[in-house]
Amino acid sequence: MPSPDPELQHALEMFSRFFDLIHQPLAIIDGEGRYVYYNQESADLDGYSVEQALGHPMLEVYPRMKASQSTMLHSLNAGVEYIGHYQVYYNARGQAVDYQHTTAPLYASNGEMVGVIEIGRDMSSVRRLQEQVVELNQLLYSNRAESSHDIVTENPAMLALIDKAKRLAVNDVPVVIVGETGTGKELFARLIHRCSKRASKPFIALNCGALPPALIESTLFGTVKGAFTGAENSQGYLELADGGTLFLDELNAMPVEMQSKLLRFLQDNRFWKLGGNQEIHSSVRIVAAMNESPTQLIKQNRLRADLFYRLGVGILALPPLAARPEDILLLSRYFIDKYRDDVEHDIQGISEKACHLLLQHAWPGNVRMLENTIVRSMIMQERDGPLQNIAYDEEYPELFSAADPESAPSPGVAAPLASDGSLAARVTQFEQQLIIEALNHTNGNVAEAAKKLAISRTTLHYKIKKYAIRLGVLTR
Question: I need a surface site. Which of 101, 238, 436, 444 has the fewest CB within 10 A?
Answer without folding.
Answer: 444
